[in-house]
Amino acid sequence: MMLNDSWTVMNNSSTELDSKPASRQKRCCSFLFWSVVMLSVFAVVATATVIILYLNQFPLPFFSKRVGVLDPTPSVISTNRDSGAVVSVSRGTEGEPISIFLDPSCPDLSESFLRWEALQSSLLRRLTNHNADDWQETGLARTLGEELKVLTGHAHNLRLEADSLKTGQGVLEQRLDVLQSEQSRTLQVLQQLHSGVSDSLLSLQRETDSLRRTNQDLQTDSRGTAPRPSDCRDVLSSGVSQDGVYSVFPTHDPDGFMVYCDMTTDGGGWMVIQRREDGSVNFFRDWGAYRDGFGKTTGEHWLGLQRMYALTGAGGYELRIDMADFDNVTAFALYEDFSVGRDCVNPEEDGYPLSLAGYSGTAGDSLQKHAGMRFTTRDRDQDQSENNCASYYQGAWWYRNCHTSNLNGQYLRGGHASYADGVEWSSWTGWQYSLRFTEMKIRPKTKPNL
Ligand SMILES: [Ca+2]
């Protein structure tokens, strides 16, 4: 009652004065009411949109942790092999990194990106088709659309990047294949090179062995087929030490001839140039016989003046004469220098003169007085006697007037009545004893190194 009255009083007091202001108050309350309704609807729509986007896991720039401010920090792409990921993408310093795992087969991500783009496009269409009556809702929807376009653009770029990566991986694989092929080829070449070098070394080793064997063969051959001996010392040096007949090839008589080598007396290496031992050979011969030699090499013989010249004409030989009587007593005479026809241009014409020096021995020197004498035979008198000493003393020798030795005399077998016509060596057995054995032998003065 009191309220109504007051109200009535109030109304009564202003009915006439404020009839239009009452109508204005009524419109103002209606506007406020619909504004609240629209705000509520807009809030519901925005909340639903955000929920949809959130459920679709879209990054919402205005729903980041810093609400309402776009994150200016660019994405950071880095490799993170520790986590097993090939590439990690982190957005912002506090953002969770997104690891991208690329297995060797490189899965095709284009389809995922396409689905992503399709989803964004679908959401964009929905936002576009949303017919909002309120200007704020419309602005928000427009903002969402712009962001979605940006997101779609990013997704598209990512798909292109993924395709580019896949293409790059293909090129990389091709290059890896080429590299592997090159590596294989290089290894093959290296193996071939190594094999070639090994073959060359093996061949070189074989050649070296062959050369070594050849060298050994040559050395064996050189020992087996020694240079032709020029005298008995060479024969002895070749390792032969047995007395006997050998071929020698003196420098001045390259065709060679047979000689008897004494390999035992006084070191051996002696060439026998005269031997008397049994009287089986006639020594009373002419010039030609004494020049060319006669007799049997293994028995009584005369080597020949020409051969003696061939051997000793240039000097350098020594002479040894071994003798024995019929009582088996022996003696020898050694001359350290002996030569026949020394330095003669035509030794036969010069008479094969005797050069001799340096006696030693046990038989006495019965030859030195013949030094310088030319050789005389029964048919070629070149001695200093009125007569032919050879004829007179039944021999052939380097007679002077006539002799102190006559080793080519008659084989009278010991003591004889005739004078000096036997096999004489006067300083040992006088002029009337014909020796049982005589042997004249020569060798180079320089003894061989045995
Ligand atoms: Ca004479």
TrEMBL record:
NCBIfam families: GGGWT_bact (NF040941). This is Fibrinogen C-terminal domain-containing protein. Homotetramer; disulfide-linked. Keywords: Calcium, Chitin-binding, Disulfide bond, Glycoprotein, Membrane, Metal-binding, Signal-anchor, Transmembrane, Transmembrane helix. Residues 210-238 are annotated as: Disordered. It comes from Eleginops maclovinus. One of its GO terms (molecular function) is metal ion binding. One of its GO terms (cellular component) is membrane. It is found in: Membrane. It is a single-pass type II membrane protein. It comes from the Eukaryota. Its main location: membrane. The lineage of its organism: Eukaryota, Metazoa, Chordata, Craniata, Vertebrata. Residues 223-446 form the Fibrinogen C-terminal domain. SUPFAM superfamilies: Fibrinogen C-terminal domain-like (SSF56496). It holds the Pfam family Fibrinogen_C.
